[in-house]
Amino acid sequence: MAGRPRDPDLEQRLLTTAWSLLTTNGYDALTLTQVAAQAQAHRTDVYRRWPSKVRLVADVLNEFLPPVPDFDTGALLGDLRAFVEDLAGAWDQPWNEGLIGFLSDLRRDDEAGRTFRALVVRRSQPLVDAIARAVRRGEIGEVPELALVGNLLEGPLMHRRMFGGQPMTPDELDVVTQSVYRTLTGTTVTS
């Protein structure tokens, strides 16, 4: 017995709707029922694809979070500053308001965690490339622990946004960048 024909655009419509709701209302306010209603779909259409909000949001971020551009300024300090500035712009987006709830839910869902970690790796690639260029140019002698470098750059942004509710100023971004640069090169930035 033939059922209703599958809507080839349904999954994309659900993802697009979820992104819109996430960026407008935040993670905490997002519900799968709300996504279905706004996408003019059935709740079962959503639950069949995503059994939980955290899985839906992991896929939504994977689909819609823009990549970090690969800036090549010709110098490690400039590349680090460009990377931090782009991250700061991402941390200043409304969807981050519910990030603590998302990260908490993420810890309990291995599949969503794998999706999110793959997104983090992709978004970190410009930093990996900047470090490789710095090694080739002789600015640094060895490849540092890249995850730690990323944490040093993004940690202050994340902390300020999640616990302070405010973005970092350009001067503070300079301090973060220069601190990581000094750690990597052993030299201090002079104006």
Task: Report a brief summary of the structure.
The protein is built from nine helices and no strands. By secondary structure, the protein is mainly alpha-helical.
Question: How many extended strands?
Answer: 0
Instruction: Give the overall average pLDDT.
Output: 89
Estimate the helix proportion, in percent: 55-70%
Number of domains: 2
Order of helices and strands: HHHHHHHHH
How much is the radius of gyration in Å? 20 Å
Contiguous runs where pLDDT drops below 50 for at least 5 residues: none
Which structural class do you get from the secondary structure elements?
mainly alpha
* Shape call: elongated
Strand content: under 5%
What is the CATH T-level topology of the largest domain?
A: Tetracycline Repressor, domain 2
Number of helices: 9
Quote the distance from N terminus to C terminus: 75 Å
Main beta sheet strand tally, sense and closure: none
CATH architecture of the largest domain: Orthogonal Bundle
